[in-house]
């Protein structure tokens, strides 16, 4: 079950080929075992079907026959296991990918999280499996599914045994597990048997009866006398593989030749028999082929040709298939194969003869073939198996910094890093820089800095030019690391000095320095300078015609435009970036595409287009997970805000928790995301009425980021002080501290306008307008609204959300007195048709008192059962009220009902 890779190095496990889940066909002349299949069918009443016996007793063939005989309505998933699947992360990735063949999209977040797992880090497999099994239970919807793990003994280990024991303990209804293995798994089999949840077939069950052996012999077209048959059965003792080996060896024997001694159950005899009666009887070219290709876990004709430096591999494979020489197909197309494990073990034990190509050389040839196929991951693995870590390192070095920094798919490079000896990382400045950038982009700052320090071993360089270049590259990387830590002055100094000495052809590193300086300018509130850096970055990317860097430049420009309040222009910029990436295939994830997609979702949320925003945010999160890109926290945060706007507080907190779990699993320092997540939580707490809690955490954030010695705002939230000022003012207003709230909002107005941050100026204006309306200062509120309309002309409709919901009639009247413009038109289109009646105090929709009570609990995130318990009414009555509410409000879902009720003023 070896994973292929896509041309860019990302495992195409994102789309794992069929061969990984292909159930091998029954061998020619297979003798049916109906009585065993009947016993297995009876075992479907339990949870586990275990077929455990030594090699060659027909375990896999029986499992395959049983799958073909399953009652109608059953689905099957076949996982043929190999030694490489012993890593629990690899195993469960394939396990989930197999399930997704039947249930597309199953546990998308879990799959991405598993792919980002680093083997040296602890991983909570049981928690991961719990979420998977819960989601699978929902998706089953009454269906029956049989999961087959074939050759489980090849992957057994303490972690995997424990994890699968958990699966057995929590197996969803309708799912059964069938396992074939040479040794019994370390599971609680006695307990399962006691509770009638286990059916186990062992060696005594699998031995061929006389009738079955006779059917097998007859199926091969071999004529035996009764005496010969009885002798063979006595000697073979019902061993399927021994009988098959004997039949295979006898096919070309003269009819007058006495039957050879039948094999006994012993590895030595298996060895001798295979050598003498199978391998030695093959033509010399076929024998050489077997020994040369045995080192491969899987192979195709083209790979075998490259390995042998011949052109007849396809013909030899046809010969092996025709003569049933232990060739196992791995796909429906008949392109990829492996040898039977027992057969390949024997072949690999055969020492190369004098003059034969060594195994290391064969792996090296395979490495070159995979390199030519643009399959760098498999190429690196073959180089390592050849004992040539230097070749593996060279393959990694062939990546340019521009390719790495443009794609920013650090997951790929971090996986390779685990396969190479640590001693190699210090052998060349290039490897140090490549892995240093990968670690920095993965937010593993301490590791990146430790690696960057190794560059000092290469100083002084051979020439002054080389020395300047090496120092400039070190400064570029150090600037990135310093920005991640919030060391603004150090980051600026490193980036500026790097730009002085980095040559033009190092445009990727120059681009990263300019991008970092632009972000720091936004952090300092100097937006005009950020725009200048954006212009330089875009010109640099266009000069070299690199679409990835051009798209990154458009992303950075969009962020600055949004910081200035120009939401519509930012949205155009994002779409320009996505259009520049239009030529890239969807088969491979790109961090820049993930960021642009996420930012498009964020901007659509600012435009009050929640459905479109949600779709883009979810797509961006999926791609960001595949790239291990930290910006997925933006997607989760905006999704949480959207859930809060629709009244689903529980979903909002779940989304934030998922973001934190993911980033923690990726070893991302909290400095990158904690402030953003906490800020959204404060918004949720305030919406729930937990104002002291929100106030406490806002105060802590303010002490950190706006105190006497403020920390730098994080890279993902460079305008954090403005966010904090707005949130604190809103909490003060909700605590009826109106004077403090008014003072804070007016301070925020002035501060935001001074910085050119018109979006925050707009938010401050509208919240001040709401405060003045609450206090009956209508004339002042009208003047502030005019200011807000001016600040919001860039298209940020979200700032007006509460005004649209709470004072639609007043807003409509005020807009009627203003000059026509795009913003006024957008706001009028969002106003409900019944604004006047709702604002006047009457109910625009005639909901009963009980219906309003149910609606309020729905808005608090209560389930139907919780509403039933709180209102002392039946569950059926709750559902009836919910249907009536949806009908009266003209919506289909409860979240839509809450949003509609808020727009009509029925809910605050």
Map the helices and strands.
Layout: H1 34-43, E1 48-52, H2 59-69, E2 74-80, H3 88-102, H4 108-115, H5 125-140, E3 144-150, H6 158-169, E4 175-181, H7 189-194, E5 198-201, H8 203-206, H9 210-219, H10 226-236, H11 240-250, H12 267-279, H13 284-293, H14 301-308, H15 313-322, E6 327-329, E7 337-339, H16 341-349, H17 359-372, H18 376-385, H19 389-397, H20 401-407, H21 410-419, H22 422-425, H23 429-441, H24 445-453, H25 464-485, H26 488-501, H27 507-524, H28 527-544, H29 547-563, H30 567-580, H31 591-606, H32 610-627, H33 632-645, H34 649-665, H35 674-688, H36 691-706, H37 720-734, H38 738-755, H39 758-774, H40 778-791, H41 801-806, H42 808-816, H43 822-830, H44 835-839, H45 849-859, H46 864-871, H47 875-889, H48 894-903
Parallel strand pairs: 1-4, 1-5, 2-3, 3-4
Antiparallel strand pairs: 6-7
Helix pairs in contact: 1-2, 11-12, 14-17, 17-18, 18-19, 20-27, 21-23, 23-24, 23-25, 24-25, 25-26, 25-27, 26-27, 27-28, 27-29, 28-29, 29-30, 29-31, 30-31, 31-32, 31-33, 32-33, 33-34, 33-35, 34-35, 35-36, 35-37, 36-37, 37-38, 37-39, 38-39, 39-40, 45-47, 45-48, 46-47, 47-48
